[in-house]
Specification:
With 349 residues, this protein is α/β, with parallel strands linked by helices. It folds into two domains: 106 residues, Aspartate Aminotransferase, domain 1 (Alpha-Beta Complex); 224 residues, 3-Layer(aba) Sandwich (Aspartate Aminotransferase, domain 2), CATH 3.40.640. 40% of the residues lie in helices and 16% in strands. The strands form two sheets. A seven-stranded mixed β-sheet has the order 2-8-7-6-5-3-4, with helices on both faces. Strands 1-11-12-10-9 form a five-stranded mixed β-sheet. Strand 5, helix 6 and strand 6 form a beta-alpha-beta unit. The longest helix is centred in the last third of the chain and has 24 residues. It starts with 12 loop residues before the first strand and ends with a helix. The structure holds pyridoxal-5'-phosphate. The site of pyridoxal-5'-phosphate (PLP) has 13 residues, from helix 3. Pyridoxal-5'-phosphate (PLP) binds next to helix 3.
Length: 349
Amino acid sequence: MEGYHSPQVDVEVRLNTNEAPGPPPLGFSQAVADAALEIEWHRYPDRSALGLRRALADLHEVDPGQVFCANGSNEVLQTLLLTFAGPGRSVATFEPTYALHQHLARIAGATAVLGSRDADFLVDVEQAADLLKEQAPAVSFVCSPNNPTGIVEPKDTILSLLQTVSSFGGLLVVDEAYGQFSPWSALELIEEEVPLVVTRTYSKTWAMAGARLGYLIGPEWLVAELDKVALPYHLDSLKQAAGLAALDFLGDMELRVSRIVEERGRLSSALLELGADVWPSGANFILFRPPGGDGDRIWQALVDQSVLVRNTSSWKHLHGCLRVTVGTPGDNDRFLAALTSALRNEGTQ
Ligand SMILES: Cc1ncc(COP(=O)(O)O)c(C=O)c1O
């Protein structure tokens, strides 16, 4: 099998992995440094990460037993699939979407069932219901806001998918890695009897991709199953402390989100002015198709000017498209200048 790749190139402006444009506040780093001095390094960490779970439960107004934490939301997704998928079972995704969902499903030994989205990149509920009823996947993924399109699914879609997966005993996973950018969250639908989990990450809005920490909120019975599958002591003491410390800087996170949303608006308008097709984004990145539609060539022309975006132009359904992360105003200006120059050389401007 092929590995999962997100190509890295040594450039000055990195707008390819949807990271936050800058680090968390200094007070956060100081709090983590203080916590490091208190850690009993010769002891194993708190196996159940109870302090962190309690704090996340408070944040989302749920019970600590409804929270499962792991090393990045990727490990949360992997643990879900090790627990509920596997040989003889299938896992559904709606393409184009986060490629790791189907990759992790295959690693878990399950069969990946690939549905597709409509022309606006939304899940078509009727088509989805037909596919799901026919295949009865153990796990169905919906990424909202969706990576790489940025599209937010309406609540009615999630409700309809929930009804469908409930009819055959499946589980719906809503990947909300970009949830804080979205006007609504499926967290409000979590209930003990509802087969739904919502995954979140510290990597994006919390500006902590380097910490590798993510979590899910779901029914208590489900979290208890995940706890049986996760490796003992998989979350180290420093990571637990960092996750806790971050929550004291909620206001900074919210301010960061609102600044990114403002910059996203500016970037979208500029891309439209340059003649690109631009999809409405509810995340910290924008999917666009440069005029002329030669995504590969424009991607290379950007790299030649030391600007890296994600090249999705060869992905099914995304012909000629690129995905750019919203960076600092300076990084965004560098990107726009490089794109303008690339288009001028191509004769489309
Ligand atoms: C939709 C989606 N889910 C999950 C992840 C993984 O995030 P983490 O860094 O928490 O593993 C990403 C990262 O890009 C993502 O885009």
